[in-house]
From TrEMBL:
Annotated compartments: Cell envelope
The protein's name: Amino acid ABC transporter substrate-binding protein (PAAT family)
Xref: PANTHER family: ARGININE-BINDING EXTRACELLULAR PROTEIN ARTP, MEMBRANE-BOUND LYTIC MUREIN TRANSGLYCOSYLASE F
One GO cellular component, as annotated: cell envelope
Keyword set, alphabetical order: Signal
SMART domains membership: PBPb
Pfam families per UniProt: SBP_bac_3
Leader sequence residues: 1-24
InterPro entries, A to Z: SBP_3_CS (IPR018313), Solute-binding_3/MltF_N (IPR001638)
Entry similarity comment: Belongs to the bacterial solute-binding protein 3 family.
Domain called Solute-binding protein family 3/N-terminal: residue spans: 63-288
Length: 301
């Protein structure tokens, strides 16, 4: 999956897109987008019975301080006005409404979010962070979504991810898709005496998607919600290819043993049961990873 498995690392830089197979400057992508869903934001009612269980610190401040690393469309990024938006944002805002508080987002380097939570600077983190056994040694996770690796292809031009030998595949730089998924599939090709897969890496996911839409690559490998959103935005151009690989949960980290974890879990479960969770996921086109039961520390493997 994405570099959310580890540090997303370097700050994402604007990248100039390939055009017509040549390195032509056609304008650069930015860390903002102006094509966020236009559906009316879901307004969620406070649930007093759940809100009453909030830790005193959060109750008294009236806010949930959330560390976030951007951009990572469609989960968390800035729109054209500079506002932090995304699937994760809408879901966290809904949870905050259930709890009768507001979510206050503070930008951070990805690798600094967990240390800041441990230090008490943030109450939780929201950055498409994969819940892993290793991370569970230092923080607890409230799991709210299942993500995996999902390939995409141009409409009507089928690609088998397990037999993409000789094909060009777009990936976002430093992600698991670049470092593990495509290389491992390429090694299998070479072991079978077939041409290797050429990974075409971009600094921005939007650039990787554009390359596929324009036919500059044969396929794209990305986190499943990222691929789902790209397809939603380009339904006449691209479609999913092959199965979902290596599904694992996204989670919100909180301090180890913190009383906030079961409260967040209960709030997410309330949204699942009410159908509002599903509405939010469908608004962003990422419903395939929607869960039916909120859990704590549900890392796979």
């Amino acid at each position: 999956m994405s570099v959310r498995i580890g540090a997303r690392g370097v700050a994402l830089r604007a990248v100039c897109l390939l055009a017509g197979g040549a390195l032509a400057l056609t304008g650069c992508t930015k860390n903002t987008e102006d094509n966020a869903p236009t559906a009316e934001k879901i307004q969620v009612a406070k649930v007093d019975a759940i809100a009453a269980k909030l830790p005193d610190k959060v109750k008294q401040s009236g806010k949930l301080v959330v560390g976030v690393n951007i951009p990572y469309q469609p989960n968390e990024y800035k729109d054209a006005s500079g506002q932090i938006v995304g699937y994760d944002v809408d879901l966290m805002n809904a949870v905050a409404q259930v709890l009768g508080v507001r979510a206050e987002y503070q930008e951070s380097d990805f690798e600094k979010i967990i240390p800041a939570i441990q230090a008490g600077t943030y109450d939780t983190g929201m950055s498409s962070m994969t819940d892993t056994k290793e991370r569970e040694q230092t923080v607890d996770f409230v799991d709210y979504y299942n993500a995996g690796i999902q390939w995409a292809q141009q409409k009507g031009k089928p690609i088998d991810p397990n037999n993409a030998c000789g094909k060009r595949v777009a990936v976002q730089r430093t992600t698991i898709e670049e470092t593990e998924d495509v290389p491992n599939k390429s090694k299998a090709c070479e072991a079978a005496g077939k041409p290797k897969i050429e990974a075409v890496a971009f600094d921005e996911q939007s650039a990787a998607t554009t390359a596929l839409v324009l036919g500059q690559v044969d396929a794209m490998s990305a986190d499943s919600p990222v691929t789902a959103y790209a397809i939603k935005q380009n339904q006449d151009k691209i479609e999913s290819a092959g199965p979902l690989f290596e599904s694992q949960p996204y989670g919100w980290p909180v301090p180890k043993g913190a009383p906030l974890a079961p409260v967040l879990q209960e709030a997410v479960q309330h949204l699942i049961d009410s159908g509002e969770y599903r509405q939010i996921a469908e608004n962003w086109g990422v419903q395939e990873g929607a869960i039916t039961k909120a859990t704590i520390n549900g890392a796979v493997g």
